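Sat 14:20. Reprocessing the chain from the morning session after the first attempt stalled halfway. Input below, unchanged.
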Amino acid sequence: MRPTDVGLALDMAGSTRLQHLEQALAYVQSLGCRLVEVDPSTFRTIVYGQLRRPQLEEFAAVLRNFDLRYSIHGLARLNLAYDPRHELCRQIMACQIEICRRVGASCLVYHSGLQALDLVRCGVRSTLLTSAELEEGARREVAAFRDLAPVAADAGVLLAMENGDPHQWEYDLLARFGRPRTEIAAHHARLYVEPIVRQLEAIDHAHVGLALDIGHLYIVAQERGFDYLEAVRTAAPWVRHLHVSDNLGLLDQGFDTEHECWPFGEADIHLPPGWGRIPYREVFARLPGFQGDLILEIKSGFVDYLGEALTTMQEILRGIDPPAGSDGL
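Finished this time. Tokens:
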């Protein structure tokens, strides 16, 4: 496996200051990094489904100051499947594609919308979605991507749907409604590769693919008891973008602050590669035909170890070429 580039995701920790963005970009460039994934949502670029052109130009101007390639991480809460404000969500997605066009970003990462529990947790609904509603939402998201894919293609942007990770609050919510833990597969379907693949098959567009988060998938596999490496192999034909970090494969215990989870090894704590248990070489061997960018998604608590993370990942990649004639397994 030889990714196009190995890059870093910027964790701005909620900063709204362009000065902080500039400092962060200067730092990662000093590490020899050529690719950066940026989340523009804190820089006031979109308000009520409309681009704020002055703020977008300020954001783009900072990015142009650096000799870097960019990908964009879209708004995490955006949901084209189950948010009842569907047209507003489409407008926001279109705005994000335009941001990519303006800054020359090659990829827009979108969290798959196949997560229907947020509506209940946040009080938007008082009941869980029915099976019919879950199915209709999945179809609605496919229809939206069919319409948006040509817009992305015109902008030279790949739309990459990302798989999710489980949380204790989701199981607690299901229990409140008397539902077994196994029903998480229906109400948070993006935990699994197969439902996203079915959507990608239905969308059937060269500018829409899978952003495989190997850390998310590792936690799900340990929690739900399925074969992690087999799931990677199932995903492989669709993977166009990779999010990489390490973890211990343990479900959280209800705490969201990452530094409080480190001592317990809980949740998706975005460790540098080699600090956790993810078997990278085995994972990458099951992605022999991967063509796309690999983004190290290391959070701000490990900013002093970004250089180490880049070096470690390059060493791992140098050691995973399969023997001649092998199928990579």
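The first strand starts at residue 6 and ends at 9.
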